[in-house]
Amino acid sequence: MNGFGGAAERATTVDVVVIGAGQAGLSAAFHLRRAGLEPDRDFVVLDHAPRAGGAWQFRWPSLTYGKVHGMYALPGMELTGADPARPSSEVIGAYFDTYERTFDLRVHRPVDVTAVREGDGGRLLVETSEAVYATRAVINATGTWDRPFWPRYQGQETFRGRQLHTSGYPGPEEFAGKRVIVVGGGASGTQHLMEIAEVAAATTWVTRREPVFREGPFGEAEGRAAVALVEERVRLGLPPQSVVSVTGLPLNDAIRAARASGVLDRLPMFDRLTPTGVAWDDGRTVDADVILWATGFRAAIDHLTPLRLREPGGGIRLEGTRAVRDERVHLVGYGPSASTIGANRAGRAAVADIRRLLEREPAAAAAVATV
Question: Whole-prediction pTM value?
Answer without folding.
Answer: 0.85
